[in-house]
Write a structure and sequence with these properties.
The chain is an alpha+beta fold and 330 residues long. The protein has three domains: 120 residues; 55 residues, no CATH class; 128 residues, Fic/DOC protein, Fido domain (Four Helix Bundle (Hemerythrin (Met), subunit A), Up-down Bundle). It is 56% helix and 14% strand. It is built from 13 helices and eight strands. The chain has a six-stranded antiparallel beta sheet. A two-stranded antiparallel ribbon has the order 7-8. Strand 5 and strand 6 form a beta hairpin. Helix 1 packs across helix 2, helix 8 packs across helix 11 and helix 10 crosses helix 13. The longest helix is centred in the middle third of the chain and has 49 residues. The two termini are 66 Å apart. The N terminus is likely disordered.
């Protein structure tokens, strides 16, 4: 016998017509029938269907809480229409009752339910799986394209402006994984360098500031301290608790140095530039400013972006910003 089915979209889920006889509600990844519909489906009286449903739950084959739902329907009782709350049972109950009822109709429905409805569910999953694979493929293609952009910067035939733009794109794309972890709140503090080659003192920091002023021919206001907070910023990265460093790795010290000097605003002018300069000098003197392949751990554009982000951030965002810096240094 050929089974003909068709689907109709409704405001309360999808309706499947079984053999063009009656509507089967398809909702929440299953189908729902009431007792009257099951009696019609299996060609049995209501009492028999009710008895089998009772036994399904009595024997704890299924749980009521997950297999029954009530729905308000309008039905004719005599000459009047009455609105009542009717219990509907999902596919698990329908199949359980079908197996208990020994009838030709029950057998036919089990075949139909298995081959048609389950296939419908599997097809839905397959569609979603294909969509995910497509999105993954797009991401991989994007990564390949960015790799090609990086190779383009090595060509001598392109302009400096184009090369600079492509370089920015390729460099910032390396942070995609960091941004993804940030979005999903999975950003962790990576392992860092335990042994420091260099310890920054207040006097050493002043030398860096003076050298920077000479190089850029800055005014006397740049680096002019407003109070003693700059000394506090230097000391803060070496603070201890229980004879242990609060910031044990070189990377953590560097990240907090950038944060404290930027946020404490200790100078009349040049706070952000001083913070960035001390940050890169600290990395350089501790031998971790470059990766093993010779590339800068933090390039110029990223350094500018990080310093501006810190300056514009709120105090509650400190831990998040520190994690971002540490992951970029990783």
């Amino acid at each position: 016998m050929t089974n003909k089915t068709k689907n109709i979209e409704t405001s309360k889920g999808q309706v499947v017509l079984y053999k063009n006889k009656f509507e089967v509600k398809f909702e929440q990844e299953t189908v729902w029938l009431n007792q009257k519909q099951m009696a019609e489906l299996f060609q049995k009286d209501l009492r028999t269907v009710n008895e089998h449903i009772y036994n399904v739950y009595q024997e704890k084959e299924l749980q009521k809480s997950t297999t029954i739902r009530k729905s308000r329907i309008v039905q004719k009782e005599g000459k009047r229409e009455v609105t009542r709350n009717i219990e509907f049972y999902n596919l698990d109950v329908i199949i359980s009752v079908g197996y208990r009822i020994k009838s030709k109709q029950g057998t036919q429905f089990r075949i139909w339910a298995t081959n048609v409805l389950r296939k419908h569910l599997v097809d839905g999953y397959t569609i979603n799986e294909k969509r995910l694979k497509i999105e993954q493929h797009k991401y991989q293609e994007l990564q390949k394209s960015i790799s090609l952009l990086g190779n383009v910067t090595k060509l001598s035939s392109i302009s400096d402006d184009a090369r600079g733009l492509i370089q920015i794109i390729t460099e910032y794309t390396k942070a995609l994984d960091i941004l993804d972890d940030f979005d999903h709140k999975k950003l962790l503090v990576p392992k860092g360098t335990k042994k420091a080659k260099f310890e920054l003192s207040y006097d050493e920091a002043r030398k860096v500031i003076e050298a920077m002023k000479k190089k850029f021919k800055d005014s006397d206001l740049v680096g002019q301290e407003k109070d003693k907070s700059f000394k506090s910023s230097i000391g803060a990265i070496y603070q201890t608790f229980g004879k242990k460093d609060v910031y044990p790795t070189v990377e953590e010290k560097a990240a907090h140095l950038l944060y404290f000097v930027t946020k404490n605003h200790s100078f009349v002018d040049g706070n952000k530039r001083i913070a960035a300069a001390l940050f890169v000098c600290f990395l350089q003197k501790n031998g971790i400013i470059l990766r093993k392949n010779g590339e800068k751990r933090i390039d110029n554009n990223t350094l500018v972006a990080l310093t501006l982000m810190v300056a514009a951030s709120k105090p509650v965002e400190k831990d998040m910003l520190i994690k971002v810096i540490l992951n970029l240094l990783k």
